[in-house]
Amino acid sequence: MRNLRLLKSLRCSELQGPGTPQCFSVRTDTGTVLIASEYSVTELDPRAGQVMNEVSLTAERYLPEDGSGTVVGIQDLPDQESVCVATATGDVILYNLSTSQLECVGSVNSGLSAMSWSPDQELVTLTTGQDTIIMMTKNFEPIIEVGIHQDDFGEGKFITVGWGKKETQFHGSEGKHAAQKKTIEVQPAMSWDDRRPRVTWRGDGQLFAVSSVCPQTGARKVRVWNRECVLQSTSETVNGLEQSLCWKPSGSLIAATQRHPNKHSVVFMEKNGLLHGDFTLPFGKEQVKVKALLWNSDSTVLAVWLEDMTREEGGQVNTYIQLWTVGNYHWYLKQSLYFGSDPQRAPANVSWDPERPLRLHLVTRGWASLTYDWGWSTDRSHGEDGQDNANVAVIDGDKVLVSTFRQCVVPPPMCAYELQLPAPVNLVTFHRQPQRTNELAALTADGHILVYGQGTGDQSDPTARVGGFRSITHAPQLKTTYRVLLDQEEPLALRLLLWLRGDVFLGVGGCAEGPSQCTLLILGPSEAQSPQSTLEIKSRVEVEGHVISMCHSSNTGTVALQLEDGRIRKFLWDSLKPSVVGWQDATGYSINFPDPCVQTALCTIEKEHLLGLTDRSHLFVDDTEVASNVSSFVVYDDFLLLTTHSHTCRCLRLSTLTVKGLQVALAADGGQNDQNDETLRRVERGSRIVTVVPQDTRLILQMPRGNLETIHHRALVLAQLRKCLDSQKFREAFECMRKLRINLNLIYDHNPKVFLESVETFLRQLDSINHINLFLTELKEEDTTTTMYPYPSNTTGQSAPGACGKKVDIVCDALRCTMESMDQHKYCLSILTSHVKKTVPELEVALQKVHELRVNPPGAANAVSAEEALKYLMFLVNVNELYEHSLGTYDFDLVLMVAEKSQKDPKEYLPFLNMLKTLEPNYQRYTIDKHLKRYRKALHHLSKCGEEHFTEALNLVKDQRLYSEALGLYPTDSPQYKALSCAYAEYLVEQQQAEQAGLLLWRCGEAVRALQAFVGSASWRNALCVAEQIPLPPDQLALLARDLAEKLIELRRYTEAAILLEQYAKDCEEAISALITGAVWEEALRLVYLYNRQDIIETNLKPALLEACSSQTSYLEAQRAMFIRHKTRLAVVRELKEKARLELLDEDVPDCPEAELYSEASSVMSGSRAGSKYSHSNSRISSRSSKNRRKAERKKLSLKEGTPLEDMALLHALAEIIHSVDKMREEVHSLLKGLMLFQFDGQAGRLQQAYGEALQMMEVALPEVWQEGLQQSPAPITGPNSTANSIMASFQQPRPSITQDSETPPPPKMRNGVKWKLSILK
Question: Which segments cross the bilayer (predicted)?
Answer without folding.
Answer: none
